[in-house]
């Protein structure tokens, strides 16, 4: 039963993602991307990985896409602006498509050999041990990434306001 | 539980919650009437109790138009996004020992995620309306969500540390003897502030702020679409109250009365507190709200987390 749900949710995620990259309106594309992320989270829940599912919802669906929407909505999307963008980015889809295809090959190759056992239940203590024990270095590196983002925002703001921090 | 039983129980719970949200609108209007020395709805049924049914019927028959120039698809989807995530969030709430639809290992995070998703209703609804007031409200909603989500999660991690679990039933069980509000007063206060912001209630309802934005993100909505936004808001109040009861007030624990009654009483009292706060507090200015979140609440939540962690380690727990 849960396998069936996972497969359905995965198919939904794929369909929404495919629609997202082919939409004309950016906000519709983001709405579909949100749908894809939520469907992916549903697949995680169905595969007994609730922590991955909840984090998927909270971080990606809840925060990251919200920022995207926030930015996109403030940009004027008239017909003229849209035409200009289309001329500017004509053919630009080839690089991301190639990268995605390259990433897909190993995934498809592994698909047959997958089927590792169900993940262990995610208690608070076990999660803490994973994130700040076994994977502590990775967690710290990610926090470094956040600090880099913070400094970037600061610099951009400085430039806009004419030198005053 | 078999799948069919779970489905039936979900259906029953959704119906109960919809009725509870309807009754809550009546309680709020009577309560606000009391605070403002007027009567409030008092004509339909005893004490005006059936007012919420009359209003629902009225809203169902009202015209529900997409504004000219608006984005039809997004305009229609947005109100549904207001209520459905909150309804899903109730699935992990534990009303009594074993009384929960899904005893999720990461129940607390799941509820946080569901409350965060409600922001899309406001942002997308605002954008699709093609209305400047709505747009301002939508942008405020997004900025407020990002400011408050950060310390909302951190404020309750002290409780998670003390309980050693993210599952709501286990957190209640860990409060046998002493409620966590006594051990985590700062965490509880911060949670209360963030909870009001997460439910988008006054004084943190800048996104609809009727004095300066007409009705903010829902300016262009009418009929049942309008009602869905309100349903989402009232359900969010009930969900935040249920979460606060679970995390800080001992959930179903209490003498004499059966467990679900205790849970309902505490949640109901907290929901009344939402109305009380709405009636007596003024709305802060927008930049004050965001500045408070980042400059005061977030550091305090981190200090609370550090202190709790130190105590837990020193006492040899975890």
TrEMBL record, chain A:
<comment type="similarity">
    <text>Belongs to the complex I subunit 6 family.</text>
</comment>
<feature type="transmembrane region" description="Helical">
    <location>
        <begin position="29"/>
        <end position="51"/>
    </location>
</feature>
<dbReference type="InterPro" id="IPR001457">
    <property type="entry name" value="NADH_UbQ/plastoQ_OxRdtase_su6"/>
</dbReference>
<comment type="function">
    <text>NDH-1 shuttles electrons from NADH, via FMN and iron-sulfur (Fe-S) centers, to quinones in the respiratory chain. Couples the redox reaction to proton translocation (for every two electrons transferred, four hydrogen ions are translocated across the cytoplasmic membrane), and thus conserves the redox energy in a proton gradient.</text>
</comment>
<keyword id="KW-1003">Cell membrane</keyword>
<dbReference type="GO" id="GO:0008137">
    <property type="term" value="F:NADH dehydrogenase (ubiquinone) activity"/>
</dbReference>
<feature type="transmembrane region" description="Helical">
    <location>
        <begin position="135"/>
        <end position="156"/>
    </location>
</feature>
<feature type="transmembrane region" description="Helical">
    <location>
        <begin position="87"/>
        <end position="109"/>
    </location>
</feature>
<keyword id="KW-0874">Quinone</keyword>
<feature type="transmembrane region" description="Helical">
    <location>
        <begin position="6"/>
        <end position="22"/>
    </location>
</feature>
<keyword id="KW-0520">NAD</keyword>
<protein>
    <recommendedName>
        <fullName>NADH-quinone oxidoreductase subunit J</fullName>
        <ecNumber>7.1.1.-</ecNumber>
    </recommendedName>
</protein>
<dbReference type="GO" id="GO:0005886">
    <property type="term" value="C:plasma membrane"/>
</dbReference>
<keyword id="KW-0472">Membrane</keyword>
<keyword id="KW-1133">Transmembrane helix</keyword>
<dbReference type="Pfam" id="PF00499">
    <property type="entry name" value="Oxidored_q3"/>
</dbReference>
<dbReference type="GO" id="GO:0048038">
    <property type="term" value="F:quinone binding"/>
</dbReference>
<feature type="transmembrane region" description="Helical">
    <location>
        <begin position="57"/>
        <end position="75"/>
    </location>
</feature>
<keyword id="KW-0812">Transmembrane</keyword>
<dbReference type="InterPro" id="IPR042106">
    <property type="entry name" value="Nuo/plastoQ_OxRdtase_6_NuoJ"/>
</dbReference>
Automatic annotation (TrEMBL), chain B:
<dbReference type="GO" id="GO:0016655">
    <property type="term" value="F:oxidoreductase activity, acting on NAD(P)H, quinone or similar compound as acceptor"/>
</dbReference>
<dbReference type="GO" id="GO:0009060">
    <property type="term" value="P:aerobic respiration"/>
</dbReference>
<feature type="transmembrane region" description="Helical">
    <location>
        <begin position="261"/>
        <end position="281"/>
    </location>
</feature>
<comment type="function">
    <text>NDH-1 shuttles electrons from NADH, via FMN and iron-sulfur (Fe-S) centers, to quinones in the respiratory chain. The immediate electron acceptor for the enzyme in this species is believed to be ubiquinone. Couples the redox reaction to proton translocation (for every two electrons transferred, four hydrogen ions are translocated across the cytoplasmic membrane), and thus conserves the redox energy in a proton gradient. This subunit may bind ubiquinone.</text>
</comment>
<keyword id="KW-0472">Membrane</keyword>
<keyword id="KW-0874">Quinone</keyword>
<feature type="transmembrane region" description="Helical">
    <location>
        <begin position="293"/>
        <end position="314"/>
    </location>
</feature>
<feature type="transmembrane region" description="Helical">
    <location>
        <begin position="80"/>
        <end position="102"/>
    </location>
</feature>
<comment type="similarity">
    <text>Belongs to the complex I subunit 1 family.</text>
</comment>
<keyword id="KW-1278">Translocase</keyword>
<feature type="transmembrane region" description="Helical">
    <location>
        <begin position="6"/>
        <end position="27"/>
    </location>
</feature>
<keyword id="KW-1003">Cell membrane</keyword>
<feature type="transmembrane region" description="Helical">
    <location>
        <begin position="226"/>
        <end position="249"/>
    </location>
</feature>
<feature type="transmembrane region" description="Helical">
    <location>
        <begin position="108"/>
        <end position="129"/>
    </location>
</feature>
<keyword id="KW-0560">Oxidoreductase</keyword>
<feature type="transmembrane region" description="Helical">
    <location>
        <begin position="178"/>
        <end position="199"/>
    </location>
</feature>
<feature type="transmembrane region" description="Helical">
    <location>
        <begin position="150"/>
        <end position="172"/>
    </location>
</feature>
<keyword id="KW-0830">Ubiquinone</keyword>
<dbReference type="Pfam" id="PF00146">
    <property type="entry name" value="NADHdh"/>
</dbReference>
<keyword id="KW-0520">NAD</keyword>
<dbReference type="GO" id="GO:0005886">
    <property type="term" value="C:plasma membrane"/>
</dbReference>
<comment type="subunit">
    <text>NDH-1 is composed of 14 different subunits. Subunits NuoA, H, J, K, L, M, N constitute the membrane sector of the complex.</text>
</comment>
């Amino acid at each position: 039963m849960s396998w069936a749900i996972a497969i359905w949710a995965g198919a939904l995620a794929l369909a929404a993602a495919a629609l997202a990259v082919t939409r004309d309106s950016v906000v519709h594309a983001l709405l579909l991307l949100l749908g894809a992320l939520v469907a992916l989270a549903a697949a995680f829940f169905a595969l007994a990985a609730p922590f991955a599912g909840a984090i998927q919802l909270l971080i990606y669906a809840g925060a990251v896409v919200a920022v995207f929407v926030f930015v996109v909505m403030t940009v004027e999307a008239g017909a003229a602006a849209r035409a200009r963008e289309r001329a500017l980015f004509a053919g630009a889809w080839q690089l991301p498509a190639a990268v995605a295809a390259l990433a897909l090959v190993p995934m498809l190759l592994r698909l047959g050999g997958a089927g590792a056992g169900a993940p262990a239940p995610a208690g608070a203590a076990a999660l803490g041990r994973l994130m700040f024990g076994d994977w502590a270095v990775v967690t710290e590196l990610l926090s470094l990434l956040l600090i880099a983002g913070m400094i970037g925002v600061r610099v951009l703001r400085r430039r806009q306001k004419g030198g005053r921090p | 539980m078999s799948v069919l039983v779970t489905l039936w129980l979900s259906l029953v719970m959704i119906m109960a919650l919809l009725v509870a949200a309807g009754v809550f609108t009546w309680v709020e209007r009577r309560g606000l009437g009391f605070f403002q020395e007027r009567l409030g709805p008092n004509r339909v049924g005893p004490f005006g109790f059936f007012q919420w049914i009359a209003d629902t019927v009225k809203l169902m028959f009202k015209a529900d138009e997409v504004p000219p120039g608006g984005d039809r698809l997004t305009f229609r989807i947005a109100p549904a996004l207001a209520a459905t995530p909150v309804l899903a969030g109730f699935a992990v709430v534990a009303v009594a020992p074993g009384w929960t639809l899904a005893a999720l290992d990461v129940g607390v995070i799941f509820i946080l995620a569901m409350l965060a998703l409600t922001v899309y209703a406001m942002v997308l609804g605002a954008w699709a309306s093609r209305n400047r007031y709505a747009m301002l409200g939508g942008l405020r909603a997004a900025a407020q969500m990002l400011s408050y989500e950060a310390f909302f999660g951190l404020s309750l991690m002290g409780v998670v540390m003390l309980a050693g679990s993210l599952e709501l039933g286990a957190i209640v069980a860990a409060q046998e003897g002493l409620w966590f509000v006594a051990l985590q007063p700062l965490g509880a206060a911060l949670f209360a502030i963030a909870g009001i912001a997460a439910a988008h209630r006054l004084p943190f309802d800048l996104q609809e702020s009727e004095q300066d934005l007409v009705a903010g993100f829902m300016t262009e909505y009418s009929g049942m679409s309008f009602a869905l936004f309100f349903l989402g808001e009232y359900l969010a109040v009930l969900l935040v109250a249920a979460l606060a009861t679970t995390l800080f007030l001992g959930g179903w624990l209490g003498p004499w009365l059966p467990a679900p009654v205790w849970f309902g009483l505490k949640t109901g009292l907290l929901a009344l507190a939402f109305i009380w706060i709405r009636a007596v507090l003024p709305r802060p200015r927008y930049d004050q709200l965001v500045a408070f979140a980042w400059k005061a609440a977030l550091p305090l939540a981190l200090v609370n987390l550090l202190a709790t962690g130190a105590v837990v380690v020193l006492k040899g727990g975890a």
